[in-house]
Write a structure and sequence with these properties.
heterodimer, A: mainly alpha, MetI-like fold, 15 helices, flat, B: 291 residues, mainly alpha, 11 helices
Chain lengths: 305, 291
């Protein structure tokens, strides 16, 4: 177990290092940073001063190391637009996106897990086909269109839900559904295929032969075995949702990280863009690491592989 | 001892064209949109760019509009049907263009990892890991926002983000196939690595490749629409479905058809491609396991 844990953490650190290089490269793509910081009216001398001041005249590897050493303690520099530290902005916006992600994950799971289970009872049956049709439709629906349809229906025509802002929990219902729509097909598929395997196994046949009631067999014996892949997929999907909420946040005016990213890109606010990309990637890496370790703790076969 | 020629890879006969409704529906939808894209100048009733200030926001026929503009006109008085038809070009160009490049990246990495295994596999696995930890939409809008939103850049950025499934699937298939007799005998006959990979393995992973490619085309088309919607897709006045929805945002509460028409069109195209992909998957690998 210890060996597996160390190995897994080592890989996660290496991935983070590679991601940090890519985020750094992102900033370099933007061209001469000194010029963008100085804005149009500055003199050449001032641009030169900025370049020296921020160490932009140094060789790239040195620039990267200096940037990395600051990024490690959460210092991503100041936002060009707000004039405040990028990490402060991020810390203000992250909770909104996190709440949205959790709501989305929750809705996706309570919808997809039961549907996946009933679909697996008779593969090819009517419920299974219904489930696969829902999954196909979910994957094909453009999120932004779905958002507008919901706004028209629940927000305007029925007037049940608020259409923008973050003043109450009701504000997270529609964005949560939209986000869940995006993640649910993956859960549906993993639960369905896992259940089909589990239901065909010997221990389920044994449990049935003992005369256990069908729901007990389904939920207590078979579903348990889907837990391991489900945890992995949930971690991955939660990471995807955090990065994929940009469109949803802009439509519902949820001032989360995605909205911040969109604003920052429109304003050429590169330090903020960089901080967001790096943070969301890091969260994804940590989530998948946590899921892997959790799974290794649940299932000894993984760590002994 | 006579030289025994290695038996060539069993030529996988293309499975009999199924009378599956999924295949027919999916292929039909795709062919329809490809024709729309190719014939756009011929079948569009108007130019997608001609504005008309006194013909703005005309309603489509099914909402009591006139037959001169079947799907009505947008906020600038441009014919909506013509813009929809021309928008097909952007969607398909990005879908196919992205997949062409990402397929090249992913297949190369997958073949390398599956064929050489060991350290090469570790390195490729690591690269896949890094790619997966980059949030697709965030990175795409960042790079496009910084470098510029031209068609080639969008295609390159999306390709750089969508190759992972090719790599994963091709790696798994290659690992299975490299142990098969026809590969072993090709090696025994002295075929080099390159020859084995290109002539023996590649033809046998092609089925999986087509399936992944189909599904990734749909993925790329949806991403392009999202980028356009965020104002980071192809530049106006080029017609793109995502952009049509974005342009109609301000009047959505009064004229919701402006959003529903491109939204539903996008849904039908992506649904068709996904259904086609699923049908192909069932043809290529009925058990569906490695895919």
């Amino acid at each position: 177990m210890a060996r597996y844990v160390v190995q897994r953490i080592g890989v996660a650190l290496l991935v983070l290092l590679a991601v940090s290089m890519l985020s750094f490269g992102l900033l370099k793509l933007s061209g001469d940073l000194a010029t963008s910081m100085a804005r149009d009216t500055a003199s050449a001398a001032y641009v030169d001063f900025l370049r020296k001041e921020y160490g932009l005249d140094q060789p790239l590897p040195i620039q990267y190391l200096r940037w990395l050493s600051r990024a490690l303690v959460g210092d991503f520099g100041n936002s060009f637009f707000y004039g405040r530290p990028a990490n402060q902005l991020l810390a203000e916006r992250l909770p909104v996106t996190m709440v949205l992600g959790v709501v989305g994950l929750f809705i996706a799971l309570i919808f997809a897990v039961p549907l996946g289970v009933v679909a697996a009872i008779r593969p090819g049956g009517i419920l299974d086909r219904l489930a696969s049709a829902i999954a196909l439709l979910g994957q094909a629906t453009p999120t932004f269109w779905l958002c507008f349809v919901m706004i028209m229906l629940f927000g305007i025509n029925l007037g049940w839900l608020p259409v923008s802002g973050t003043s109450s929990w009701l504000n997270f219902v529609m964005p949560g559904i939209a986000l869940a729509y995006y993640g649910a097909p993956a859960f549906l598929r993993i639960v369905r295929s896992g259940m089909i395997d589990a239901l065909a196994s010997d221990y389920v046949r044994t449990a049935r032969a003992y005369g256990l009631r069908p729901p007990t067999v389904l939920f207590k014996h078979a579903l348990r075995n889907v837990l391991v892949p489900l945890v992995s997929v949930a971690a991955v999907q939660f990471g995807f949702m955090l990065g994929g909420s940009v469109v949803i946040e802009t439509i519902f005016a949820l001032h989360g990280v995605g909205y911040l990213a969109w604003e920052a890109i429109a304003q050429n606010d590169y330090p903020v863009v960089q901080a967001i990309v790096l943070t969301v990637s890091a969260i994804y890496v940590l989530l998948t690491l946590a899921a892997d370790l959790l799974n290794a703790a649940i299932d000894p076969r993984i760590r002994l592989e | 001892m006579t030289l025994v020629l290695p038996p060539t890879a069993p030529v996988r006969r293309w499975p009999r064209l199924p009378r599956q409704s999924g295949f027919i529906f999916g292929a039909g939808v795709l062919v329809f949109f490809v024709l729309c894209a190719l014939l756009a100048p011929v079948i569009s009733p108007y130019s997608p760019y001609d504005q008309s200030l006194d013909g703005r926001l005309m309603r489509p026929v099914f909402m009591g509009g006139e037959w001169s503009h079947i799907l009505g006109t947008d906020t600038l008085g441009r014919d909506y049907l013509s813009r929809l038809i021309y928008g097909t070009r952007v969607s398909l160009l990005i879908g196919f263009g992205t997949v062409a490049v990402s397929c090249l990246i992913g297949t190369t990495l997958g073949l390398l990892a599956g064929y050489y295994r060991g350290r090469v596999d570790l390195v490729v696995g690591f690269i896949i890991n890094v790619r997966l930890s980059l949030p697709i939409i965030l990175v795409a809008i960042s790079v496009v926002g910084i470098v510029g939103n031209t068609l080639p850049i969008i295609i390159l950025v999306l390709s750089g983000l969508l190759w992972d499934r090719f790599a994963v699937v091709i790696r798994a298939l290659t690992m299975q196939i490299r142990e098969r007799e026809f590969v072993l005998s090709a090696r025994a006959a002295g075929a080099g690595d390159l020859r084995i990979v290109v002539c023996e393995i590649l033809p046998n992973v092609a089925g999986g490749l087509v399936v992944v490619a189909t599904l990734e085309i749909a993925h790329a088309i949806l991403l392009e629409a999202a980028l356009s919607f965020l104002g980071l897709g192809v530049q106006p006045p080029t017609a793109s479905w995502g952009q049509m929805i974005a342009e109609a945002k301000d009047v959505v509460f009064f004229e919701s058809w402006l959003i529903n028409i491109p939204g539903l069109t996008l849904l039908v195209l992506v649904l068709g491609i996904n259904v086609l992909g699923d049908a192909l998957r069932n043809m290529v690998a009925p058990s569906g396991r490695p895919l």
